[in-house]
Design brief:
Helix content: 40-55%
Structural class: alpha/beta
Strand content: 15-25%
Number of domains: 5
Low-confidence stretches: 1-39, 735-754
Mean pLDDT: 86
Strand order of the largest sheet: 1-3-4-5-2-6
Largest sheet: 6 strands, mixed
CATH superfamily of the largest domain: P-loop containing nucleotide triphosphate hydrolases
Number of strands: 27
CATH class of the largest domain: Alpha Beta
Radius of gyration: 36 Å
Shape: elongated
Length: 754
Amino acid sequence: MQKILLLLIVLAISISCGSEDQPEPGSSFQMKPRGEVFSVSSELEKLNASTFFIKSNSDRYPPHNSWKSFTRLMKEVSIFDATTKKIMAALCSGDTNKSVLIVGEPSEAYRYIFSRLPFITRQGCNQQIHAEINISKIEEGRKYVGEVEKYWNEYIVSPSEKHDVVLYLKNLGMLIGLGSHSHDSTGIEAEYASNISSGRIKSVAFINKYEFNKLQFSEHAYVLASFAETITLDAPGSLKVGQLAQKYLEVLHPQLSISKSNLDYLVKMTSYYRPNITEPGRTIQILKSMIREYEGELNTAEKSVNFETKHPYNSRSNISRVIKFDGVESISLSFTRFETQSDADYLSIIDGETNIELDKLSGDKGAFETKFYPSAHLILKFSSNLSVQSWGFDLKKVTVVKSGKKEFTRDQVRRSLLSTAQLPEWLIDKKFDVIKGLGKKLDLDVVGVSEGKKDVIRLSKIGYVAGRTDKKPIASALLVGPTGTGKSYLAKKVSEYLGLGLVTFDMTSYRTDESFDRFLEVLSNYLILYPYSVYLFEEIDKASIKILDRLYFMLDEGIFYDKYQRPLFARGAYIMMTTNMASDTIIKNKDNPKLRELVDLKLQKSFRPSFLNRFDAITLFKPFSDAEFVKLAKIMVGKKVRLLKERFGWDLTIDSATISYLGQKGKSSVFGARPMERLIESVISVGIAEWQLANGSIPEKGHISITQVSGKDQYYKITDGSRSVLEYHVVPKNNSGFIQSILESIFRQNRSLN
């Protein structure tokens, strides 16, 4: 009896709670059974754990942050509709397999396509949920056989099958091998291919055309063949890119604008200065950098508004709401959920000042934000057509843009473009004092190598000041000479004084044919990320002949072909390559007037004449003279003294006689400046170490001095100015004497083998 009474109470409560939401007689609206709410929620929760929602039918699952601005923009942009309608036709066909593979340039174009698809309506096709597969989530922490497959079926396939989900893959290649094990040749891509072929899931995937070409000749070609349709996505032309950029400002940043001529300039110049990044990403990236400059000045604010229908609304709904703010330029509406009968029940947005209808909303849009309507006074009117009702809508807040529009100038466009391309400030401002003063700076820091300094100054003038019209790199130089003569140091100083990035390659790591693909990938990434930099290739003679062949085109045409044979432009690169080839020839014949001819003959034994002929300069680095070694010692000691002051606060002094002594003891015709660098480091560091071990730590702002002990070779003394003086012994490790002759013999023998 108690059970029966309890059931009657529950039934009465259910009837009471549901009475307000009951539709009118004659309406075809059907309430979902209440017992189904939990299962739907849990299924969507599983999907939410494994995907990024692009569009859902629940206010609990709004678009993921990574898609929010894209969907808001693409609701208003139709320039890709020739492609999106074709995709939707395949997804909505009567065929079992409803899957589409998009093949295109490696760019962000797929994001705009994916974001547009939820807004393309097609009769008989009612995909309510659009979600991007979170690939990293699938394999996270699943190490045992079968775990990935189990997760895939439970968290992706099952909820997608039940709720008419379109699954998106931003990179099909990333799915290949996911969840595979040591005894497996396939991963979850086998399940995916089977799922789309059987019609269990609907899916749209993107793959760049270079990976596509590679995969179609691999063991995973069956994955490509499993799609019902393959669509080639052409790179968007400048007209489409310009239209997209214009809409980007109108929809997402209505306070900002750009004239057509400046927008055309932006698209055109971006293609020149950032050629290795594809459209529309490169233009939008510049636009974003310009917008960021105004972030502190953009006057936007969120306002609370409460306007909603009954849920569900009745068939005679006719409600309205006025939204008005002072000092406002435009208003955007933010719905937590919007679901009305498509093309029948409408919410009209009307300009309250002109009474002109600005927009008309209808259908299932989930949680979304409208575009900005250019008015401070909006009238919202909703009416149904006496037939089917839906859930309705719920408006909780609006975003307002306060008065004060800004327009981007040509100079802002130019500066933002060049800054994003990582050109130094002096080049953006065209202040050529940097080039004028380059020689003086190099003379103060780079000892000797007068020919090398003259060459880099000349090439810098041609590349940065003269206005080159060819497509070759800014400059290219081969630096030839013995070790320790300043080849790499000169390149680093040119980078530092010109304010350019420095990208260094140790070519001894790329001497085998097996390292060829790795080199192509690494250099390609750098050319994309750092197009305007100094590229230093150390010991280029050690590189594989395949790599030299590929660099040949980079020097000659300013184009580097990556592993997919995709051309990457290197016209912003300042290329320097070093080699120790012909070192023995230079050492023996440093004063010979025919030295260059002798060196050229030596170089041609390792490099093709056509390769050598591609350099703007081949610069010879000769051994330092005795006077230059002393000057080197002074510079090296000065740098060490400055660093000790900066890092520890110590004042160190070394007298000029000691510096001259170090210059003489540290010199080496074969090994250049490096033995001296080691000697100076030892003399200073050993002295400081011995002093602190004997007397305790040197206080900050403490003063110490080091001098060579008169009459005692290899002995030095250090003092803090008090009566306490500590004497210590440092043996020069400069590879001199008998050791030097042995190393020199080995050095020459190795070079002759190359």
